[in-house]
Design brief:
There is one protein chain. The protein is an alpha+beta fold. A hairpin with a 5-residue loop joins strand 4 and strand 5. A six-stranded mixed beta sheet has the order 2-1-6-5-4-3. The longest helix has 15 residues, at 56-70. The chain has helices at 9-19, 24-28, 56-70, 129-136, and strands at 31-39, 52-55, 71-84, 87-98, 104-116, 119-127.
Length: 153
């Protein structure tokens, strides 16, 4: 029998958080009240309202509400979780049916999380945006600012 490893609290937070998204009251227990959820791109886009920054517990509700409104999730898998200090990373794959178009959206995904006091303070999600836009019947222009201005050192 394999002995338990030194799995960190941060790693289990990512898995438990993702696993609790059907119960937002429980999910909020893993989230700092000022947490930032970045849904693929920081700038929102009127043709694709899933993009943007959502802040705090209300932001979590808006983010998950948008996912539920647009996606019928067929499969969501977490394949790996790692952590290094105050950062955690996870990767997996999913398949959603887009409600408005009835098209399938399949992608590998990753997320970068920052932690403070055992809670998520940053949740930055990455996915195949070309596949998302194709499935949604949308086309956006990327206006991301990837400069280091305002980033923590």
């Amino acid at each position: 029998m394999q002995q338990p490893t030194a799995e960190t609290a941060n790693e289990s937070i990512i898995r438990r958080f993702v696993g609790s998204l059907n119960d937002l009251d429980r999910a909020k227990t893993f989230v700092d009240p000022e947490a930032r959820f970045i849904a693929v791109r920081e700038r929102s886009d009127e043709t694709l309202p899933l993009y943007g920054v959502f802040v705090g517990h209300d932001g979590l509700e808006a983010f998950v509400g948008g996912l539920r409104a647009h996606f019928d999730t067929r499969m969501f898998k977490v394949d790996a979780v790692i952590e290094a200090g105050e950062l955690g990373f996870a990767a997996g794959r999913f398949e959603h049916r887009i409600r408005a178009t009835d098209r399938l959206f399949r992608s590998h995904w990753s997320v970068m999380c920052a932690f403070r006091d055992g809670r998520i303070t940053l949740y930055r999600f990455f996915e195949d945006t070309a596949a998302l836009e194709e499935a949604m019947g949308a086309r956006t222009l990327c206006r991301e600012d990837v400069s280091l201005a305002g980033e923590p050192s």
